[in-house]
Amino acid sequence: MVDGSGFKRALKSGSGFAAAILMSLPAVAQARSAGVDDFTSLTLEDLMAVEVTTASKRAERASEAAAAVFVLTRDDITRSGAVTVADALRLVPGVNVAQINANSWAVTVRGFNSRFSNKLLVMIDGRSVYTPLFSGTLWDQQNLVLEDVERIEVVRGPGGALWGANAVNGVINIITRSSRDTKGVLAKAAGGDEYQAQAVLRIGGDIGENGAYRIYGKFESFDESETGAGTRANDDWRNFRGGFRTDFDLSARDTLMMTGEVSVINAGEMLDVPLLTPPYLERRDAEIDRIGAHLLAQWTRDLGDGSELSVQGYFDFSDIEIPQGEEKRLTFDFTAQHAFAAGERHSVLWGVGVRNISDEITNSNFVAFADTKRSVQIFSGFVQDTFKAADALDIVIGAKFEHNDFTGFEIQPSARFVWRASEEATFWGAISRAVRTPSRAEDDVRAIAAVIPPGFPGNSGPLPLALQFTGDRSIESETLIAYELGARFRLADSASFDVTGFFNDYGDLRGSRIGAPIPTPAPTPHVVLPLTVEELVKAETHGVEAVLDWQVAPNWRLQATYAYLSIDGEVPVAPDIRAGVPGAADPKHTANLRSLFDINKRLKLDTAVRFVDSLDGFGIDSYVAVDARLAWRVNDNLEFAVTGRNLTKADHFEFGTDPSFSTVPTSVERSVFAALTAKF
Asked: Are 44 and 496 in contact (CB under 8 A)?
């Protein structure tokens, strides 16, 4: 097991790092400008020209992609005042973000939200951060240095034909900045009530004539929140990370990028723990420790005549210690892809990949895995052809072929079109298939989810009844057939409108079948009631997502987004079946209105109002939240900003208790913090 004291020592040293940053800022403010300007704003014209790579694995304008693409630019992230990646994603239509407690979030695209949303693939520079143990993303582990993020590309809808299994409802790719764009020194210090402290130090420069580098460190601390009873929730957390990135031009045709990072996280949590003895349920304070490290390299060669070869490899290590046990995981991943032109009308992209995931799990009294050590392999290949059927019409057909150790061979095809009807109007459509492979837990876990005391409803016997979630090694992948249509309009030189409609048909979604009771005489007499995971549920969803961008004036931009989601589930009715109703954790309506206003060359005022509909399955009321940020550019090197979040109410709840996990949800409180950023 990991020694928690080591985490505390590391994080205490991080507090010293924060103090050092604060002391250095006055000197930085007086430094001479090195020509690096990160305080610029983007106009609507700039946004229309933004290129993305996630939708088709090649550079293309977001406004011409055959997919529902939304880009959060560096300017968007900065001016939102977000301090976490999850909070920044609240700006994206169709993405539902709910904060569970101070250190955990539920984030999904187009429904099925949970702490581990298993139908969403998240990557950083093409490196998957999807957690195979429970299927999902640990968002506190992804809280990287936001100043180093170039953009966040969000593709709503299936991406399995290119990215493989688990890219079911969407793909989020966080793309960091080239080290060539981060030369010089950045120092930042921030603090407030809920967001207690942040310190960032980044140093970048040249490596010879053809290379560049940056190294960075970040420390941050978050205050604990409150439970529904008004008591403190012990969910405060601290995050320390340090890393580097290098970029080289090896020749006129070859480039090499490398990045690496180490992170240390210490967090508290409040859990409802089931017991086999009275009182059978106890609320406990718990501690979570996480260590992460990765190293990634990407080599690209321009082969000429529109042909390009790209090779990427990475390793990723994580050690997570929670009250339910400990998991150590090591991932090796290698991919290669080749793009070339086949005649005048065909652009072909194909690639292969292999991934090895090895883990070691320490079981606990309530959560145990049949195999405490396991290694699984994934082999894949994909091909995609973009056919120019006419000057204004592209047809894109492709598929990914994948073999995994859980369900064997999977195929995920896709057919798309994009029609540029005029300079002012673009239409696109798609039919796709995607799969979500079983998690490690669904395959072989044994976990006590709840204990029913003797004499309570559901347990007429003399012994406590333990409901045990049980994995099944014969379980198949969840499936999706998706239908999408979208349109983009340039309404005028100063306005654009983007709308997407979709219909999703899901099969083999998870439910549980009740097995025969198992008397367990020792060490504590009780009866186990197994709930074996099975493919029992079907669901259909449909919805609409819309974005309106308006450059009101050269110094004022408005953006309005809206998303509607309807989920209809088909759950078998039988005495031995237990299954949640799909959509219980998803709001039907969400909306966001942002204003980005440059008062003058030195002052910027940015506000956002968001509405989130009720979560009927959790009894969570709808809410309206207002965020505001006022930034003062003191000089070319120094900016001071004050941000207020959730200003409308003192606190509100955004999520309930996830049935798969015993984390106690807490209220999201109003907060105010200030930040001082210096660059030279």
From this structure: yes
- Burial of 124 by CB count in 10 Å (0-12 exposed, 13-18 middle, 19+ buried)? buried
Beta bridge mates, 487: 427, 499
Paired with 139 in beta bridges are none
Q: How far is CA 566 from the centre of its chain?
A: 22
Contact 57, 144 (CB under 8 A): no
Q: What's the average model confidence in pLDDT over 110-119? A: 93
Please, is 393 exposed, middle or buried when counting C-beta atoms within 10 Å of its C-beta (0-12, 13-18, 19+)? middle
Mean predicted lDDT score pLDDT of the chain: 91
The alpha carbon of 218 is separated from its chain's Cα centroid by a whole number of angstroms, namely 20
> What is the layout of strands, in order, in the sheet containing 149-156?
68-73, 149-156, 170-176, 120-124, 127-128
Return the pLDDT at 493: 86
Query: Does residue 27 surpass a pLDDT of 90?
Result: no
Confidence (pLDDT) at 382: 98
**Block residue for tokens 């002052």:** 603
Q: Are 596 and 557 in contact (CB under 8 A)?
A: yes
Residue 79 phi, psi (nearest 5) = -75, -15
DSSP letters for 9-51:
HHHHHHHHHHHHHHHHHHHHHTSPP-S--------HHHHHT-E
Q: What is the DSSP letter of 364?
A: -
- The CA distances from residue 543 to 50, 80, 156, 498, 500, in Å, are 26, 26, 12, 14, 8
Nearest to 673 by CA among 88, 223, 15: 223
Reported as a single tens digit per residue, the pLDDT across 240-274 is 999 999 999 999 999 999 999 999 999 998 888 89
* CB 214 within 8 Å of CB 182: yes
What integer pLDDT is reported at residue 104 of this predicted model? 93
CATH code of 4-679, in short, is: 2.40.170.20
Q: Residues 233, 258: contact at Cβ < 8 Å?
A: no
**What mean pLDDT is predicted for residues 490-504?**
95
**Secondary structure class of 273 (helix, strand, coil):** strand
Query: 575 or 128, which is more confident?
Result: 128
What ranges do the domains of the chain cover? 4-679
Tens-digit pLDDT profile for residues 82-106: 999 999 999 999 999 999 999 999 9
Quick: pLDDT tens for 516-564. Answer: 999 999 889 999 999 999 998 999 999 999 999 999 999 999 999 999 9
Cα–Cα distance for residue pair 7/291, rounded to 1 Å: 9
Cis peptide before 523 (omega within 30 of 0): yes
The whole-angstrom separation of Cα 325 and Cα 367 is: 7
Higher pLDDT, 96 or 4: 96
Distance CA 403, CA 539 (A): 26
Residues 485 and 416: beta-carbon distance below 8 Å: no
Closest CA to 622 of 647, 583, 591, 594: 591
Phi, psi torsion values for 141, nearest 5 degrees: -75, -15
